[in-house]
Amino acid sequence: MFMKVYTSIARTSIARTSIIRSSIRRSSTDSFWRNALHSGVRPLSCQKQLPSRQEHLHALTRTEFDVLIIGGGAAGCGCALDAAARGLKTALVEAADFASGYTSKSSKVIDGGPTALQNSIQSLDVAQLNLLRQAMKERAVMLKIAPHLNRPMPMLMPIYSGLNMPICWLGCKLYDMFAGSANIKGSHFLSKEATLDEFPLLRSKGLRGSVVYYDGQHDDARMCLALAITAAQQGATVVNHVEVIELIKQDGCCRSAGMRDVLTGKEFYVNSRMVINATGALTDLVRQMDDCKVQPIAAPSCTTMVSLPSYFGSPRYGLVSGNGSYNPSLVMLPWENHTLLGILNSDCEELTKEPAPTQAQVDCLLSQARKYLEENVELGNHHMRSAWMGIRPDVHWPYEHKYQKPTRPLQDYLVEVSDNNMITMAGGRWSTYRLMAAKAVDVAMECCPLEPEKPESNTSNLLLDGAHGWHGLLPVELMQCYDIQSDVAQHLADAYGSNAHHLLAESTPGSRRRLHCNFPYIEAEVQYAVRHEYACTVVDVLARRLRVAFVDAVATLHMLPRVLHIMSRMKDWSEHDQKLQLLLIQKFLCREMGLGSLVQPRSNVKRKQSVSSSEVDGPLRTPKAPRQLKTRQYSGLMAQPAYVEEPPIELPKKSVLSKSTSPSQQLSYRQRKQQLKRKRIQQQKQQHMCASNEVVLLPKKPVQQAIIRHKVCMTAKIKATPTPPSLPSPNASPTPLPTPLPTLLPPLTPSPKADSVGIKPTCRNNTTLRSQWRNLLIC
What global pTM score does this model have? Predict the structure, then answer.
């Protein structure tokens, strides 16, 4: 019985394990976990005890580092891990939280695709072909060093033209051949029926089939966090919420950086021999801090993403549409039991630290998505659960003159050395973060005589935090050992890997409760994020530890009170600090997640009755509106879950509870209603007992109650009428009938037929009859 319940979880996890088993050899580890699973022993976590944030801050002011890295994104954390693994004294500072920029707002796809290969072949760019091959190899490395955060994802390309079918199939086969041993799985063709089985809402008119190739999907924010924690385990000093305000050049290659703690406002200086700039799209700000005359190199582009309900996509396949450019224009992916819809590489109008999507960008995205859906499928703003925009850190070659026209943005990454020996690495993507980090550390060793323990990078075989001891049966093991539900076990295994044992071992049965009834997040994750993952604010937990803000912004409000209560108790926040945290999370949700402007609570959303043809492409049929649920009103951000309230009943004047009852012994509202309901039914039973001691159960409707009461009264009166002793003679005078029963009803036309209970009054107009019975009740 146990194996039947958890077959789907084990099957999914084993499938992921079998794909990457060729690159991860852990036969002895698998046998250990298998024996522990059958024996019922709880395995201990192999996580190394990390220094706290205060200890890292103390080390920044007391240590002279070899490498100082500015920026806590994918490139910065990867560079810190590479330098620390070589034995260099490494420090990393981030102005906000780890992965607070584009790293956590990417498309959740690692890289690659036949469209990139097609564009490289058409332009005859050999450098791009080599970069694409390296990206495919790095994708296999990511699946190996963090199998719990990276997973293979089949991507489906729908084909609506017979001429494009052989071209797309040939491009996918060249893609497989070009990847070589780093290919995840061979591409194949799906028929029209199989394609519609995976995407039921996909437009079927003119569909010829689809081509499926395999890419990788990952949790970008937790992947970056795993890099930072692994770098700390290797001896690096990593601190978030510390910004650089000044760069001072000293003798030789030494630099001094002025910093400020954002949480406390304390300022201090950090000494380092080399400085590496890895600030992503804001790289020109640090470059101008080093040299005010330097020309900008950033050419950012935008990625707009929205979160939709899961029924718009497929739970197993992603959908991608190519437009002949380097990257696909539209992507639809399953993620966190929802569907992500996004447009890649759109123009970025303004460079800001808090990017937010506009209504025009969202309308363009939804309009592009409607072209691939059936005509009778409605897709509008009321379907969105969250909306965000990420600024991709693209760059172009630096130019000497101020008015020189910038070149085309590079698809590759860029490593630049300034006159003051500051290294800037910009551009790139997730599949090239490790190459960028290794190149930047190599250039730092060339510019300054550093003495590393290992001269070459060895991060390709270094497992990240949580990958030690991970295996396919980990969700089933967590369910057996800690008695948690299946979706919670799957989520913990995917997000924390083997650290899920450490998380649950520290928790109590009370802290394993869900934070929201529709999501698998539990309270113990908040405690673990504060203790072991350097979470300092509520935004850090809800956005980049639990990821619920990117999935459903409204559900984030419902989870906010409990998360704030847990963090306030752990960090001893005052009332002023709690109000400040509420303002920060409100600012984040409204400005960056589109809450209020693009995303509305479901109870306040008014569904469109009709959609004009000018708004969308093609006619749409508005589906039947679902049943609206009543929600409790709330003020501010202290939201309460939505309940369907029952109609209240009138309480008696004399309260059921005595005044001497203590507050702990008082009954709840629902219990009082049930108690009054039972008391009312008992009173009705006692009042309406028949002569034969038969109990008449009254229905709930008042009209039916009145009818049955009238029948019972008539039956009792008829039985109580005395029977004459003998039959009178025909010539005798008629015996006077008893006085008729007093009635409160108007005269009705009686039916010619009578039953055993009494005479049933009839009326042609049922509405009039019901109103008469209501008048009886009122009297």
Answer: 0.74
